[in-house]
Design a protein that fits this description.
By secondary structure, this protein is of the alpha/beta class. The protein is built from 15 helices and 23 strands. Strands 19-20-18-17-21-22-23 form a 7-stranded parallel beta sheet, sandwiched between helices. It has a 4-stranded antiparallel beta sheet with strand order 1-2-5-8, with no helix packed on it. The protein has a 4-stranded parallel beta sheet with strand order 13-12-14-15, with helices on both faces. Helix 1 crosses helix 5. The longest helix is centred in the middle third of the chain and has 19 residues. The radius of gyration is 24 Å and the shape is globular. The mean pLDDT is about 95.
């Protein structure tokens, strides 16, 4: 599923594979526009990024993009016809998982030839890309107090502590009115613990109400956490209520600031970079520019010893066999299919969600007909290397290389799990335009097309539309992305950071009942 190199004269419509029976419009094509390379004319207006039939399709015939099934013709279709969800049918089809059949080990670069960045080395040897103090709520009931504590530390207040990136509150809508034990509570606790332990946190306050189900003492016991010089906890009902807890929290952070500010950035290997891969507001160009370019950048990172975390389980559905074939072992491949089956047979059964075919209105407007087509592009973010491990949501990622974490497709929930697992950079591709930040980890935004990049340039960090424009090759774009990751990991601010985004994007996955 490698994207073709577009550094060549622009055609009206793009053929992505010789076996494809669809083309993708590079720009808006009026009715009657001739595509000379294919010897056909457009029978309808074809919006930019949308598909047109490259040849006649019989009812029921598989529609192929990148020589991969993205649906089936729901009627006989004439060449040059606009293809969309109304004349393309989503349905199940057999896939050969061929576990580990195509596994090839990574051709690692020699140690002396590997890249480095300016990172913050913590006492335990882990490396941070940012330096935050966090306030983590155990329950929604302590959310306001946590935000009030964080809000006290304005940029003006922190001006004398230039090495601290900020004080951020991480609150959520759960922690009580939920199952007292089991996977929903375990998931919440490992998510909270992942943020508490994250190397980008110089210190953390944990704030609870006192009567919630997610008690601080059981959180600490289950996750092997303990109070210390860099981890403090407050229970509002013991501290004296809202005002007194805010005052105590502010005082605690004031005492932590001088030591937290003493960090220095030093050269460290790029192997300490773990990238969470996200896409949102996708369009048809996502699979042609930003996603494969990001995947190529991840191939570079992995050769330097780093880690790429692909997620969004509903958004690999239909192309999961392309990952299981590259798995390091049958066991790893089967882990991925077990998560897919849980989604299909348990979690999303009978519901109107992506994994059952339907993509968002924004995706549809961007030219994506169904989840099969969206997954085709989404999976490209992980690159072409071997799948080394599969993790549950918010589990600590220990394996280097290309790995997968089970998460929903909803970006804030997915990124929250990746960051809890240790991601210290997030790369986020978008075709429609998505504003997203995720403290304490910087988020790099990659635009799929030049018109959107120019329109939303204040929010976008890099324009992968250069590939579509013919001004950069796929390899050149991948190198640009890799170098931007190194600069960002070294402290350069992303567009989302300059806007201060990330205060409300901590969203743990809620899978249980509310009772």
């Amino acid at each position: 599923m490698n994207a073709p190199d577009m550094k060549q004269p622009a055609a009206a419509a793009i053929r992505l594979h010789p076996n494809d029976n669809v083309l993708v419009a590079r720009t808006d094509l009026a009715q009657g526009t001739v595509v000379p390379e294919e010897n056909l004319s457009c029978l309808n207006r074809i919006p930019a990024g949308h598909k047109l039939a490259a040849r006649a399709l019989a009812k029921g015939e598989a529609v192929l993009k990148y020589n991969t099934v993205i649906g089936f013709a729901s009627a006989d279709i004439v060449p040059g016809t606009l293809l969309h969800r109304l004349n393309m049918e989503f349905r199940e089809f057999d896939r050969d998982y061929a576990y580990a059949r195509d596994y090839k080990p990574v051709d690692m670069l020699p140690e002396a030839g590997r890249a480095s960045f300016m990172g913050i080395v913590r006492e335990d040897g882990r490396v941070a890309t940012r330096n935050y103090i966090g306030i983590v709520s155990t329950v929604n009931c302590s959310a306001t107090v946590s935000h009030r504590i964080a809000g006290w530390f304005t940029p003006e207040t922190l001006a004398e502590f230039p090495n601290i990136d900020g004080v951020a509150a991480f609150t959520h809508s759960s922690g009580c009115g939920m199952e007292l034990s089991g996977e929903p509570m375990d998931l919440l606790r490992r998510t909270l613990a992942g943020y508490i332990r994250h190397p980008n946190m110089a210190a953390v306050l944990v704030v609870g109400l006192g009567c919630e189900r997610n008690q601080i003492n059981t959180l600490f016991e289950s996750e092997k956490l303990s109070n210390g010089t860099r981890l403090h906890s407050f229970i509002m009902q013991d501290t004296g209520g809202t005002r007194k807890t805010i005052e105590a929290g502010v005082a605690a952070i004031q005492a932590l600031l001088p030591e937290a500010n003493q960090v220095q950035r030093v050269p460290v290997p790029a192997s300490h970079i773990t990238v969470g891969l996200q896409c949102g507001g996708s369009d048809s160009f996502s699979s042609i520019t930003a996603n494969p370019a990001l995947g190529a950048a991840m191939d570079i990172l992995v050769r330097h010893g780093g880690t790429a975390v692909l997620s969004e389980t509903p958004e690999i559905y239909g192309v999961e066999h392309t990952l299981t074939r590259r798995a390091v072992s049958r066991e790893v491949g089967e882990k991925l299919i077990a998560r897919i089956r849980w989604w299909k047979d348990v979690y999303a059964l009978g519901r109107d969600v992506q994994i059952n075919g339907v993509v968002s209105p924004g995706n549809q407007a961007g030219g994506l007909a169904n989840i099969l087509e969206k997954s085709l592009g989404s999976a490209m973010k992980g690159g072409t290397g071997p799948l080394m491990e599969v993790y549950k949501y918010a589990e600590l990622v220990k394996q280097k290389g290309f790995v997968f974490m089970d998460t929903p497709g909803y970006d804030p929930v997915s990124a929250t799990g990746q960051i809890a697992g240790g991601a210290n950079i997030v790369c986020f591709t978008t075709g429609r335009g998505s504003a997203f930040g995720c403290k304490p980890t910087p988020s790099i935004k990659l635009a799929t097309n030049t018109p959107m990049f120019r329109k939303l340039e204040e929010d976008m960090d890099i324009n992968c539309g250069q590939i579509l424009d013919g001004t950069a090759s796929m390899d050149e774009m991948a190198e640009q992305i890799f170098q931007l990751i190194l600069r960002t990991a070294s402290g350069d601010k992303t567009k989302s950071e300059l806007f201060g985004l990330g205060d409300h994007e901590f969203v743990p996955w809620q899978i249980g009942i509310t009772g």
